[in-house]
Amino acid sequence: MLTELERTHHEIFMKQAIKLARRGIGSTHPNPRVGAVVVKNGLIVGEGWHEFPGGPHAEAMAIEKAGEKAKDATLYVTLEPCAAHGRTPACTDAIRSSGIAHVIYASSDPNPKMAGGAKVLTASHIDVIGGFMAEEADKLNLPFFHYMRTGRPYVTAKAAISLDGKLATRTHNSQWISGGESRMHAQGIRAQVDAIVVGAGTLQYDNPSLTVRDVEIKGKPPLRVVLCFETPRFNADSKLLTGDAVTRFYVRSSNEHTEKWQQAGVEIEQLSSLDAILKHLAEDGYLHLLLEGGGYLHASFFEGHFTDELVLYQAPILIGGRDAICLWNGLGVESVGQALHLADIKRRVLGDDVMIRGRVVYFED
Fold first, then answer.
1. Strand runs (DSSP E) across 53-189, as ranges?
2. Nearest 10 degrees: Cα torsion 298, 300, 302, 308
3. 365 pLDDT band (50/70/90 cuts)?
4. Strands 102-107 and 127-129
5. Are 71 and 98 in contact (CB under 8 A)?
6. In Å, what is the CA distance from 248 to each residue of 23, 180, 224, 227, 284?
7. How far is CA 191 from the centre of its chain?
8. Between the chain's N and C termini, which has fewer beta carbons within 10 Å?
């Protein structure tokens, strides 16, 4: 059991490791984000973070920077050190050979191929403390942990809505419901995800570009994904045909337009269910999806229990009309007691809009 003084001392350095891990947001895909610091006599003598897949792990980088000072030092790392050789050698090997005497890690590694580092280090007579500040560190890698647990990507649904819950008017006009500050905030979310997903309706009515604008991207731009029953009518003016990012259509059946889209550079994947599509994306390394579709697409994700997080930009306008597009354009629930609700809610005023963000909790949960 740690004393209050020891806990305060450890928190200083683990917070720095978490700060370093955040530098990997957008660039470690599909690997987890990890930060590490080596501390000796109360001073940081080495720092590291995982920058890109195949690159040095955070522990190895921090130990290399510490050099001889790593002997008898303490390593703080946000994720349990890996015990197996992947693209790079096992971190437990680097730790043992460096002479580090103490290891304090936050999140446990959920990957069965890499887990077990704590046992390896303990067997080598290195003092190990696990789970320290785990709740804060776990937030760094929600998509990775979610994939390890479910085999599916972590889905963040985003929408701009009116006060009466409409995504668009009865003529499918939606530009712009939210203001400039909300749209810039949404670009920041786009820059952090692996893929942006819409449906055939959005492709038809909005001709979206699905690119990240006015925000720096680390690594590759998000994959642009369209979900549809069959390949949509070919449109040579589609903004998805630009070379800004890769575009992929998921269809249940092909038609005469399929080859034209493929010749224009669009990837076509034929799968029969939403669950199969999500697992295919995850297995392909796309672990965090941003859902930006219309009411029917949002409904299919809600009713399949596939949406994990919801971000709403609510504008102070009323659209009205029974034929206007609503956020959940599906069956919905039978009673208020079965309603989905948000947990861990964050609210933020963005110009005239209010951003509401939270984790989606389903009735069975």
1. 74-79, 102-107, 127-129, 154-161, 166-168
2. -80
3. low
4. parallel
5. yes
6. 28, 28, 6, 9, 12
7. 10
8. N
Name the residue among 156, 224, 228, 227 with its Cα closest to residue 195: 224
Per-residue model confidence (pLDDT) at position 79 = 95
Of 289, 288, 298, 297, nearest to 340 by C-alpha is 298
Q: Do 158 and 290 form a contact (C-beta atoms < 8 A)?
A: yes
What φ, ψ does residue 229 adopt, rounded to 5°? -70, -40
Residue with tokens 């392909």: 284
Distance, C-alpha 259 to centroid of its chain: 32
> Given pLDDT bands bounded at 50, 70 and 90, which one contains residue 6?
confident
Which pair of tokens denotes residue 171?
Answer: 């003529």
Question: Residue 254 in contact with residue 230, Cβ under 8 Å?
Answer: yes
SS3 category, 104: strand
**Per residue in 65-90, pLDDT tens?**
999 999 999 999 999 998 877 777 88
How does the average pLDDT of the chain come out, rounded?
A: 92
Give the global pTM: 0.88
3-class SS at 8?
helix
Integer Cα distance of 172 and 181 in angstroms: 23
Sign, CA torsion 93/98/99/105: negative
Phi, psi (rounded to 5 degrees) for 348: -155, 135
Give me the active site residues, please.
59
CA-based nearest residue to 38, from 13, 18, 12, 21: 13
Interatomic CA distance for residues 106 and 127, integer angstroms: 15
Determine which helix (DSSP H) or strand (DSSP E) holds 63, and give its type and residue range.
Answer: helix 58-66
Cβ atoms 270, 261 nearer than 8 A: no
> For 298-355, what is each residue's pLDDT tens digit?
999 999 999 999 999 999 999 998 888 899 988 888 888 888 999 999 999 999 999 9
pLDDT tens, 37-76?
A: 999 999 999 999 998 888 889 999 999 999 999 999 999 9
Distance in angstroms (rounded) separating the CA atoms of residues 342 and 142:
16
